[in-house]
Amino acid sequence: MIIAVDAMGSDHAPQVEVEGALKFVEENKNVEIVLVGDSKKISEYLNFPHERIKIIHTSETIGSDEEPLKAIKTKKTSSMVMALKEVSEKRADAFVTAGNTGAALAGGLFILGRIKGIERPALSPIFPGEKGEFIMLDIGATSDGKAKYLEQYALLGSAYAETRGINNPRVGLLNIGVEETKGDELRKEAYELLQNNKNINFIGNVEARDIFKGYADVIVTDGFSGNVALKVIEGTAGFVMQVLKTNLLSSLKSKILTFLLKKELKGMKKSLDYRETGGSLLIGVNAPLIKAHGSSNSYAFYNALKLSKTVCENNLIEKIKEKLEN
Amino acid sequence: MIIAVDAMGSDHAPQVEVEGALKFVEENKNVEIVLVGDSKKISEYLNFPHERIKIIHTSETIGSDEEPLKAIKTKKTSSMVMALKEVSEKRADAFVTAGNTGAALAGGLFILGRIKGIERPALSPIFPGEKGEFIMLDIGATSDGKAKYLEQYALLGSAYAETRGINNPRVGLLNIGVEETKGDELRKEAYELLQNNKNINFIGNVEARDIFKGYADVIVTDGFSGNVALKVIEGTAGFVMQVLKTNLLSSLKSKILTFLLKKELKGMKKSLDYRETGGSLLIGVNAPLIKAHGSSNSYAFYNALKLSKTVCENNLIEKIKEKLEN
Fold first, then answer.
1. What number is the average pLDDT over the span A247-261?
2. CB-CB neighbours of B238 under 10 Å
């Protein structure tokens, strides 16, 4: 297996990309990595030549504030476009980037291409929940939702969950109430499509406050509200941690007790850390494309590489195609 | 000041309503309360006659799963409709309920009536933030958003924040990125309206992960994504607390240390507890209408009564009318 990596994407590129890659190939002897980016900067963090890490040099990059489509169309020798081409031209099996999200999406669409039958690919992160993981999609690939996209997300998410070992995944529609009649026009229309599609194990609406409760394995929503949900999760978790800290460090006594609970509090932080899942899969394009957080550290990037490997090994793209043919 | 209370609305009615009212009048000597509901059930929790708590008896109620508009139109002697009439017919100054949200909204619209110039009233809870409180609206009064509604929310929210002591409140648009061009069609259109309205101190987009950071005093959004945001906050806070608990109670040692930190952890819980703010104001109707959580305890209901008093004392309705005339 070969993973093509945009080595220049993250806020701390290429350090986190290189360090993540080194840790990853160390643990996965059957994987090779192609780092695409500035060879001089990359070699600051990598003893070259490396047995299973190749560098494809380019000095062009796509910045985080560039207009995505234009960047993909015009910057043919950027690290992102060149790494994507490694995959589209079959020299690599998966693509991982921590760069410009919009450009990664545009690259997925125009370089990897959509799977036949899928109009809009979806960003689909995996979340920890009270009874195991769940997938939520779309969390921002498409801002303006349509009911038929949500139906496609349900099929994509089901295939994804199945490859992660969940049998007959339960699909819920993110909504503002559990009753069938709840929500805006988009939700009402999507509800009907989901209910009438025999290839979807639709369990009805899931309220946003219940997403962690394990009622559904796959939660579908439009990219706008999905992105709001994702970021509110991040914001709230951060706020709660801050309030916790303020309270725990309010006196000398509590500081000492907190110090003695260091291990337990670290365990908590780990369970909640987005860096543990490493990135979101862009599902619905012809090859695994993982978008890692721009502020990823090397551990988060390592986890994104791990996810790309799992997606390859599980033959997700093939599974999706099978599902769409049914 | 007289507050009309739907005494039969909450999951534990009328106990929490009566207990909340008793605590409230005890602390606020200049306030009278009218409890509308089943006098026999109410008197189980109230020594009658009470100096400043009156009962208006009715045995009809509106259930939490009833069709809201129909219930308001047909159940003329329900506790909710009768309490609302106390306000619309000027025998009371504010209305508080923990009952059916949809019915409370319909009652607000059809019994209290909209303020001239406001097409859609908004549910507008107050949240704790890192640098003080902020108001988010709408969080679910209207599912299908329009840009002009969001503009009206900005005016309503600004007036509300001003009456709470915030000078020239900063208004942010909840969005999936900070740049002007971000978001769906609704957001783009709303951005323009907000930017061009001289009566709004618009600071641009606020990402959902930053709502607690204090960049804006008022955050406007459509009712669907606002409701998702609100409930994701609840769900995430609950999930984080559960993970914290699991970790802190993982061994005997950590259990003992946690016990010694009881006070600090309680302080944390208090800072995050929705019961502290008590309820959401339905802003944009002709009188203060507070919707408390259906699962409120008596402390939460007491806080909802407190909020209704503050809104009255601050002359919010008059302030809104002034603002709309400018």
1. 83
2. 18
Query: pLDDT tens, A138-177?
Result: 999 999 999 999 999 999 999 999 999 999 999 999 999 8
Residue B221 has pLDDT above 80, yes or no: yes
Q: Is the pLDDT of residue A275 over 80?
A: no
Residue B91: how many CB atoms within 10 A of its CB? 12
CA distance B60 to B73: 13
Question: What H or E segment, with its residue span, contains residue A245?
Answer: helix A223-248
DSSP H or E run through A291: strand A289-291
Query: Are B240 and A240 inside 8 Å of each other by CB?
Result: yes
Q: Which residues of chain A are within 8 Å of residue B136 when distances are taken between CB atoms?
A: none
Q: Which of A135, A138, A163, A167 is nearest to A153 (CA)?
A: A138
* Residues A265, A222 share a domain: yes
Q: What pLDDT was estimated at residue B264? A: 81
Pairing of strands B218-220, A134-137: unpaired
Task: Please state, as a whole number, how many other Cβ atoms lie within 10 Å of the Cβ of residue A44.
Answer: 10
Q: Residues A63, A187: one domain?
A: no
**What pLDDT score does B274 carry?**
59
State which residues form the domain around B133.
125-271
A274: pLDDT strictly greater than 70:
no
Residues A242 and A131 in one domain: yes
This model of the complex carries an ipTM of 0.84
Q: Are residues A164 and A265 in the same domain?
A: yes
Read off the pLDDT of residues A101-119 as tens digits, 9 standing for 90 and up.
Answer: 999 999 999 999 999 999 9
Q: Which of A69, A136, A240 to mutate to test the interface with B (most CBs of B within 10 A)?
A: A240
* DSSP class of A115: P
Pairing of strands A126-127, A134-137: antiparallel
For residue B211, tell me if it sits in a domain: yes
Q: How far is CA A236 from the centre of its chain?
A: 20
Looking from the CA of B94 toward its CB, the CA atoms found within 13 Å total 29
In a domain, B69, yes or no: yes
Structural domains counted in chain A: 2
Phi/psi class of residue A87: alpha, beta or left (left: φ > 0; alpha: ψ in -120 to 50)?
alpha
pLDDT band of B163, cuts 50, 70, 90: very high
* Contact flag A234-B144 (C-beta cutoff 8 Å): no
* Residues A246, A227 share a domain: yes
Can you give the pLDDT at residue B276? 66
CATH number of the domain at A302, please: 3.40.718.10
Residue A256 pLDDT exceeds 70? yes
Domain-located, residue B278: no
Q: How confident is the model at residue A273 (pLDDT cuts 50, 70, 90)?
A: low
Q: Are residues A186 and A134 in the same domain?
A: yes
The residue of chain B with its CA nearest to that of A251 is B264
**Looking at chain A from residue 170 to 189, which residues have their Cβ under 8 Å from any Cβ of chain B?**
174, 176, 179, 182-185, 187
- Domain-embedded: residue B277: no
Same domain, B207 and B288: no
User: Model confidence at B243, in pLDDT bands (50, 70, 90)?
Assistant: confident
Same domain for B237 and B315, yes or no, is no
Largest CA distance in chain B: 64
Under an 8 A CB cutoff, do B236 and A233 touch? yes
